[in-house]
Write a structure and sequence with these properties.
By secondary structure, the chain is mainly alpha-helical. It has a single domain, classed as 434 Repressor (Amino-terminal Domain) (Orthogonal Bundle).
């Protein structure tokens, strides 16, 4: 999961880490660790985040591509 993606979604909704943690059934510290990338979320937490943010799992888990270097012919 891309931590910056869930941070962005949280801030867009004006939610605190504590609010999200309570909604998905984990501690604030556990959620904070997910946001900072110190901890990977369980499948259950991913499903809860999907439902809370109304986003697809693909969106939450997709990798961002920083630089795309096309192969020249």
């Amino acid at each position: 999961m891309k931590p910056l993606k869930i941070v962005s979604l949280r801030l867009k909704n004006h939610w605190t880490q504590e609010y999200i943690a309570k909604k998905i059934g984990i501690t604030k510290q556990a959620y904070s660790n997910i946001e900072t990338g110190k901890r990977k979320p369980s499948y259950k937490v991913i499903i809860e985040l999907q439902n809370l943010f109304n986003a697809t799992i693909d969106y939450l888990l997709e990798q961002e591509v920083d630089n795309i270097n096309p192969i020249s012919k």
